[in-house]
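Exercise 4. Each item below gives a protein and its sequence. For each, produce the structure-token representation.

Item: ribose-phosphate diphosphokinase (Candidatus [Bacteroides] periocalifornicus).
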Amino acid sequence: MVNSEVKIFAGRGSRVLAERIARCYGKPLGKTSVLEFSDGEFEPSFDESVRGSTVFIIQSTFPPVENLFELLLLADAAHRASAYKVVAVMPYFGWARQDRKDKPRVPIGAKLVANLLRAAYVDRVMTMDLHADQIQGFFDIPVDHLYSSWLFEPYIQGLDLTNAAFATPDIGGAKRANSFAKHFSKPLIMCHKVREKANEVDSMTAIGEVEGKDVLLFDDMIDTAGTITKAANLMASMGARSVKALAAHAVLSGPAYDRINESALSEVVVTDTIPLNPKADTHKFTVLSVDKLFAEVIRKVSMNESISQNFVF
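Answer:
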């Protein structure tokens, strides 16, 4: 990537975060507008020239599906307006849970999204905490996969870790929780859940020393909060002194906010890859911004510098 002019734009779903990223980078957010038709169709456009520029489009692809499609339309528009490169900055990569065929006659949604991005002339993808690391292999273009550990590590350092233990609410998060446990030389607690159907946990058991511990539960996302709150309540019933949850993506759909507020969780630490519902009760939430991390990586990518130091562990 040559040193072409960098321009940063945003989709409507991530405008607030994009403004912070652009401010950290030291450039104003680029101007866009969206024409909306009466039937729900919409047409985004750039309100300034992008010819010869490296265009970074910031948009998390959480529901509704319009967030993904707006990103695709903006990427297509940038390419057709003669941008030098188009980089999709997706702090939250939606459809990542559909990373394989786990039963007959279902799609691999994450691969389809990868194909759509390439069809929209995206040259590079920048994202954080993919639900499954192998999704990077779905792309034939560079993928900068960042980790929330860059934010959580200094936050955890500020806590009293005397009686800390690191835990995961399911087997899928074992690698993440184990990395933190090894980094801080603390014990690991494993939870095993039985799920009858999507978003509903039937039963859960925990393995490890829980009594008297300040438990830190790790996951990549919190959706309906059924798993994380069931794990927290289980830890409390086993004698944990306190339980906190840390997750990169606050999807928080359906009864999530109510479940968290009624649970044994004393605090839920998330990033701002997805904005919290302004109408919800968020008194248990602590939000860490990804703005400086993405601004720094955007700068390094545009200058052809290594980003390896932006990975904590």
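Check: Residues 6-146 form a domain with the Rossmann fold fold (CATH 3.40.50.2020).
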